[in-house]
Amino acid sequence: MWDYTDKVMEHFMNPRNVGFIEDADGVGEVGSLACGDALTLTFKLDKGEKIVDVKFKTFGCASAVASSSVLTEIVKGMTLDEAEKVTNQDIAERLGGLPEQKMHCSVMGQEALEAAIANYRGKNGTAAVKVGNIVCTCFGVTDVEIKKVIHENDLTTVEQVTNYCKAGGGCGGCVGQIEKIIEEIQGAKAETKHAPPKTKPAKLTNIQKIQLIQQTINEQIRPALKADGGDIDLIDVEGNKVIVAFRGMCAQCKMAEVTMKDVVEARLKEFVSDDLFVEEQKDSVKPHTHREDNS
Question: Does 35 participate in catalysis according to the annotation?
């Protein structure tokens, strides 16, 4: 269980301003169900561009709910110019702090607010437009987003970057690029360790293949799923067919099929064998609906 503050738990159990404003002046949508976090923020303005009503809907963990809830309290009554200055650190501080591994939830709240303001001002549609080049293909994070969280939060390690925006939390193939961005911004403060890229073995025995599949799940797949309350178990390996079962939030997610192909199968092909394909074993017992946020 994460060591959440009383403020985080209070906002999680009793979130403020939940819902969607149908005739909203601004709509911001960020995140993705496939990645485990999604947030929609809507607001209504008065004639002086002051936020008189703001609501949110989110799919995510306790930190995501609490961050979204407290954000609506912060910005209600603010002008747009004032709201634009709200940072993810402001959100975290109002909650009495967040575990570093959950700071990406506060960043998501800030991004949703920025997207909603941009939507009102006619700069783009309701969904946030990606600016820059994609660095982390697993979570769709650009170099611009990575540089932003490094600058605003004084980050010096890849692990910190992952905690704040998820980049590097999937297959790990982008770690080298993230290290270079950190070094470019932080110089001597950067704490990087350049590791040689992993390569797939030329030939494996059945036992070696199963062991490598389990290792890949443990190191490359499970951390990304557990970051958002999900998990995965290896059930069996039949030739090139890998049978898995999703647990936690992943077992209930409507985007599980996407996760299975774009994350699980993709990582196994990358680190084990191009011939592998993945099937999900559906539990006969209906999953328990109460969520323990112990990722």
Answer: yes
Question: pLDDT (tens digit, 9 = 90+) per residue, 219-239?
Answer: 778 877 776 677 889 999 998
Alpha helices of the chain — where are they, by DSSP H? 6-13, 62-75, 80-83, 88-94, 103-120, 143-153, 158-165, 175-186, 206-216, 222-226, 249-252, 256-259, 266-271
Residue 168 falls in which region: left (phi positive, over 0), alpha (psi -120 to 50) or beta: left
The CA distance from 63 to 200, in Å, is 37
What residues have CB less than 8 Å from 223, skipping those under 6 apart? 169
Catalytic choice (35, 136, 165, 171) = 35
Q: What would the pLDDT profile of 57-88 be if each residue is shown by its tens digit?
A: 987 778 889 999 999 999 999 999 999 999 99
User: Which single residue is written with the structure tokens 């030739």?
Assistant: 239
Q: How far apart are CA 226 and CA 25, in angstroms?
A: 36
Amino acid letter, residue 129: V
User: Which two structure tokens, joined as six digits, stand for 214?
Assistant: 């389990």
- Please say if 253 is a catalytic residue: no
Closest CA to 42 of 30, 32, 31, 53: 53
Tally the C-alpha atoms within 13 A of residue 119's C-alpha that lie toward its C-beta: 23
The packing angle between helices 143-153 and 158-165, to 10°, is 100
- How distant, in Å, are the alpha carbons of 47, 174, 175, 191 from that of 197? 56, 10, 10, 18
Q: Is 32 exposed, middle or buried (0-12, 13-18, 19+ CB in 10 A)?
A: middle
d(CA 112, CA 29): 6
Q: Among the options 61, 105, 138, 250, which is catalytic?
A: 105
| Residue ranges of domains in the chain, CATH in brackets | 6-120 (3.90.1010.10), 134-189 (1.10.10.1100), 206-280 (3.30.300.130)
